[in-house]
Amino acid sequence: MFVRLLLMTLIHLGSWAAIQTSTAASSPSATAEAAIATVVVDAGTTHQVIDGFGSSERLFDDPHLFDNNEDPETGRAATTLTPEDYDEIMDLLYVDLRLTRVRPLIANGIEKVNDNDDPYDTDLSGFDFAWKNSDGHVDYVEAALQRGAHTYFVSPLKLEKFFTTGNPEEYVEWAMALLNHWRSLGFELPYYSILNEPSLKFSVGAPEHIRDLIKLLGAEMRAQNFDTMIVAADDVSSRSALEQCEVILADPEARQYIGAIAFHLYRGDYSDGELNDTGSLSALSELAAAHDLPLWMSEYSVPEGFEWGVLMHDLLVSHDVAAVDILFGAFGKQAGDYSYVRLLDEDTIYLGPEPTKKYYYAGQYSRFVSRGAQRIDALSTDPELKISAFRNRGGQLVIVAINTSAGEIEATFSIIGASRLEPARAVRTSEAENWVELPPPTLSSGSFTSSLPGRSFTTFALPEPGAVAQQVGATLAILLLGARGRTATMRACERNAIVCANTRASRGAAPPAAGPLPRGLR
Known about the structure:
CATH superfamily of the largest domain: Glycosidases
Low-confidence stretches: 8-32, 467-522
Number of helices: 14
CATH class of the largest domain: Alpha Beta
């Protein structure tokens, strides 16, 4: 706060020109063409805790993935992927990009016809959890967790046709059958969304009805010893989410079951590179803070990569968003431009994955800012130089600098509120570069200078003394759990038809013999 007030005072007093002149004179690498900027990072002023970066998920054999090219015999995508193809895509998303969040989208059809007239007497023979009704998503989540993902929550796309506002107990029966099915397979959902974009579902999605469903479902979850928390409201826009959450959180009984607030950015929330309804976003952020809840942007995307990266910055910095989830991690031609990885095919022949530019711009955050990091204060004297900064739990400081102008900016970074810092790692993505490792800048008394090309993202990772040792300790902890992890990983590889080539090679294990298809592919 002190740094922010100091900078504002200097600007208002007109003294900033003198500081810029002094900075330019002291920076031998500055050129006449480059703009001059000063950045101050205050590690002592903290903001929201980061819950991570992720995506919604559809299965790789879902016809929706490849422009609805359904095989009439199987009902699945006519474009088929091999286990090796699955492995490559999952590694791109959860190993290389280091996504930590998965949001499976489950359609209606689990219980096409009401099992009976008694919602307190569940006849599981009337439920179908095969493939994209659940089992395929369980397989996907398990494979993602083995690669480092952490948070997952189901968001039902649609409700069964017999659900109405007059039989909320039937929804609770359905949801509990789903939750119990996941738990029977070894996965108790940490979070659950009542319904994807409820405001689009007419009276069933009215805020008062969603609130009542939360109270009924929450009580039943606790009665059956579930710790699952509910995500509210996972709605289509910030305004719709705000309207839902104001009703839900005003009820103390419903509030106790809420673990996060989530929103999407449709219905005019975003256009032409700008967040439009900032009033609703700010109110939603304030509501989340008032109830000590994380705020998640759980679904949206834009086709252009640089624009997506800037949107991530604006959500994180201007509205204290704790998690940013893109529309899809990987998708075919129908939505490939809105995903991190485009899945290429031609005449139903799969050609391979192609990371989009969004993949690389997002990686300037996701590969360095770990789950549990805390955003810290960062200010720039140049409005075209967007700055965000974070402190990871291990002590490492991460600074993401976005030069939104067309020209080069020569920036001097000053860091206060941190102990002696180690030399920084610098990585850049621009229109012509993808995750290029740069020579580390020279640190002097907590400051360094860097030239930032036009329309570029540069991430600086600066460990504090002891951060490396903490990372080594975490690695040793993983190794100590190796026996349990090895069993789970090999079981996932064999049962999910995902060939974990890298894992097997490092452990000297042979590929599994051919056997039954995993439950999600039956």
